[in-house]
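Researcher: Sequence recovery benchmark, item below. Answer with residues only.
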C-alpha cells in the first residue's frame, strides 16, 4: 500500500470529557505522520464530515495519545458520479474540533432551556 502502515481499522472510542463516542474507519501512518481516513457514501462532502473528523481526531488524541497530522475523506457516490478524495490539514481538523465543541456546548444549553420550559411553576 505504498509505504503505509495500517495502525487500526474501525476502532470504537468514547470520551466522558467530550461526551461523545465514535468509530473512525482507518488510521494509517506514512513517513512518521498519522493520517485518519473516513469513508462516506453521500452526494457530496459536507461541513459536518469535517466536524466529525475533527471530533475523531480529538478522541484519538485523548484516548490513544496520537496527534492526527492529516485526514482524508473517500466519498463513494450514490449515483454514477466519480469517487472523490478530499484531504484535510491539521489546521482544518482544529477548526472542525472547535465547531464540534461549540455544537456540544449549544446542545447542553438547549437541554437546560428545555428543562426551564418544562418546569412547573409553583
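Model:
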Amino acid at each position: 500500500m505504498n509505504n503505509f502502515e495500517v495502525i487500526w481499522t474501525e476502532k470504537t472510542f468514547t470520551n466522558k470529557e467530550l461526551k461523545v463516542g465514535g468509530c473512525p474507519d482507518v488510521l494509517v501512518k506514512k513517513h512518521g505522520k498519522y493520517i485518519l481516513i473516513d469513508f462516506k457514501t453521500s452526494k457530496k462532502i459536507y461541513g459536518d464530515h469535517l466536524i466529525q473528523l475533527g471530533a475523531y481526531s480529538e478522541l484519538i488524541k485523548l484516548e490513544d495519545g496520537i496527534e492526527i497530522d492529516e485526514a482524508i475523506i473517500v466519498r463513494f457516490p450514490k449515483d454514477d458520479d466519480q469517487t472523490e478524495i478530499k484531504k484535510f490539514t491539521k489546521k482544518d481538523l482544529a477548526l472542525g474540533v472547535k465547531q464540534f465543541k461549540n455544537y456540544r456546548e449549544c446542545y447542553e444549553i438547549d437541554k437546560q432551556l428545555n428543562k426551564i420550559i418544562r418546569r412547573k411553576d409553583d
